[in-house]
Every structure is written in C-alpha cells, then in structure tokens.
Design a protein that fits this description.
This protein is an alpha+beta fold and about 350 residues long. It folds into two domains: about 230 residues, Transposase Inhibitor Protein From Tn5, Chain A, domain 1 (Alpha-Beta Complex), CATH 3.90.350.10; about 90 residues, Transferase Inhibitor Protein From Tn5, Chain A, domain2. The chain is about 35% helix and about 20% strand. It is built from ten helices and ten strands. The strands form three sheets. It has a six-stranded mixed beta sheet, sandwiched between helices. Strands 1-2 form a two-stranded antiparallel sheet. A two-stranded antiparallel ribbon has the order 3-4.
Amino acid sequence: MQKALSGAGYLDSKYARGLKVHSVLSVSDKGLPLGILDQYVWAREVEELGKAEQRKKKATAQKESQRWLDALTKSEELLPVSTEVVTIADREGDFYDLFACPRRPDSEFLIRASQNRCLESGKKLWSAVESASIQGEMTVEVKRNPSRAARRATLSIRYTTVTIQPPQNRGKKEQLESQELQAILVTEEEAPPEWEPIQWLLLTTLEINSISDVEQYVRWYSYRWLIERYHYVLKSGCHLEQLQLKTRLRLEMALATYSIVAWRLLWLTYLARHCPDISCEEVLESYEWQALYATIHKQTYPYQKPPTLSQVVRWIGQLGGFLARKGDGEPGVKVLWRGLRRLDDISETWRFCQDLEHHAR
C-alpha cells in the first residue's frame, strides 16, 4: 500500500502500511463461490508493533481473533436456518474460543489445527491422531499458487474422536469447558521430491459415520484456498493496491465496490467450469453476448440457440488477451477481468447502435 495513505496501519513491519481485511466467502458444497457474507477492515496501531506477548494476555474481545467469532455470528444471521453452515478456516482459526462459541443448530466448523493441544486422555493431539490406523486413501487436486504448479496428491486418512482441554491460563470468569471433536489427519506419504508433502490435521464438529464422510470433509477443506483466490483477484485482477487513493475512507469505499467485482469474476470463472453447458444467458444479457460474438468472429451470431457459458467465457478471455490455443486450458481471472471491462464498452456501443437502427426504421 502507499506510504501516503492516511489512516493506514502497519502490516508485517512498521515500514509496510495498509489495511487488514478479513473476508467471509460463501461457497457451495461443490466448490462454487456464491458471494461475500461479511468483510471486516481494520488498521493496526503502530504502537502495538512488537508487543505480541502483551496482546496474548488480553481478553478475546480485545484481540484480532474476535473477528472470527463476529464472522460466525454474521454468517448465522444471514443464512437461512434450513441451510447447514460449515465454517472452514486455516490454522489462524485454531483458538479455543471459536471451538466453545455457542452455535445455532446445523452450524458446524472444520478448522486446520495449529496447536498440539492437551487431551482429556492425557495424550497430546498430534500423537493421539497419528497413533490411529490408516483407514483409507483419497486423491485431491492441489491448486497452483505462485510457488508451485497444480498437481494431484494421494492422501492417507486417519481419524479419531478426541476431547480437548480448555486453556489453563483463563480466570474464573472465562472458564471454558472441554470440547469433544472429530480429528482427521491426512498425509501425503509419497510426495514428489520437489514438493513439501501435504499434512492436514483437521478438527471438526461434523459427525463421522463412514470413510466417505471424512473424504467429503477433506474436500470441503480443500475449497478453503478459494478465499486466497478471491483476495488474489482483488489485488492482481482488480489492482486494488494500485489505486491512487489518499485516505482510508476512500480505500474502504473502493474495497466495497471491488469486492463485488472480485466475487463475480471468481464466480463466473468457476461457474463456467462447474456448469460449462448451461446457456450463457444465465449470466449475460442477449445484447452482451451478441456483441461479444460479433467482435470475436467478425459476423453476427448465425444460430438460433444461444452459445454455452463455456464458449462465452473463452471469448471474454480472448478480449482480455487469452490466446485460446488447444493447450491453453481455461482463461484465468486476470484475462477475464480485462475482457469484461472491454465487453462492457463494446456491448453498450452495440446496444446504442441497435437502438439507432430501430428508430431509423
């Protein structure tokens, strides 16, 4: 972020300034992004830099971790009671107050463990789960990121029921009860030598009745990276960090708008992969896809049935620089963002010309 941005706080050091954002992304059980449920923005005070040990002694309500509890409350308020809510978080969400937080019926959590917690049995969490026998194997898609390519990974599965003890450093007013949870450990036993093996220890309130339940929960956790993609779209697709804004308020207003753009862009990308054969008119107006077709193919659309969503998304990608060669795969969010911006201008011009033609008759 810019050093001149007023109202900003420190990020990783006192020299890196900006705003922190905690987003709650709603995703279907098949991995389709559905929208942003909540987004909390704050600035860290420079005076707090280097005082991690002091912050640990504060009540949860005074810590940044409180945002997880607030996000859970907001999610339960916004989603219908008939909808099962599963809160999925990485290791940052592994704190006891979230486990012990009261939840409505059909509100569960699935969190990657970071702490080797004490159990009621006297054992430690990791050793207790590692001592369980391997009960199956599954394959997951490991998505690419800036440091690795996409690949498939075969994981061994262990799971058991554990009862974790509450923290012992709480006062009488904050006394918490033990929590019975399901612990799932998935390990990549034979990872390629150039990659770090996958090892996820997941804690969940979801019931386990069979190995297929465990496989489903692991797949759900693998969708967590979609929130990373969402923030990537905000930064690299929408170029939020490059906006020349001078105040925190203006940046927050821009964030509110670009958050909708980023989600819709992510939704369009994955909808085309989940439902490639649906009509493009589920997403675009008739004049939009007709203008798009005419621009790409240099002629008006010759068929009566609208093209599929998959076809249209590739054409939008071509507007943004996607080459659409045989081995190029599907267009990514960057070219789709550029293509959509061009399509907006093209389709408005198309509609204007159509209106002129209509009035001339």
